[in-house]
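Submission checklist for the structure archive. All mandatory fields must be present; incomplete records are returned to the submitter.

[x] Identifier: tRNA(fMet)-specific endonuclease VapC
[x] Organism: Neomoorella humiferrea
[x] Residue count: 149
[x] Sequence attached
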Amino acid sequence: MNASIFVDTNVMVYAYDRSEPEKQVKALQILDLLATRKIGAISAQVLAEFFVTVTRKIKEPLTLEQAQKRIQNYLASWTVLDVTPLIIIEAVRGVREYQLSYWDAQIWATARLNQISTVFSEDFATGSILEGISFVNPFAADFELASWL
């Protein structure tokens, strides 16, 4: 595995959310570049959250068929990490020790236990580092994708 950047669900969702055109363009650029360079990783959790969000929670949802096709494309072109029992235990520790929400803790635990030191997400405080995992908001005004390649 050459993945060095873990991508949270929100980055993937913005690629399909037409109600956020600026974020959509940025998300598409990020996802395309990470996939092309084969340095991006996602998890089974991220794919599940992606499916629910793009079919039910965005203004113009994808059809079930469209969402399934997108997921199949991600499975074929991205490193997809499993959620293991050890990740669940580590996520619980993240909730207990760092007061993360469980789902955010599971993102952190998946990155940490797979030795991926950077998470692209808008759900964590930008610039925060938790046990060696850096959280970066790719939609922040000062974000430059080239500096992460």
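[x] Structure attached
Curator remark: The CA atoms of residues 37 and 149 lie 9 Å apart. The first helix runs from residue 9 to 14.
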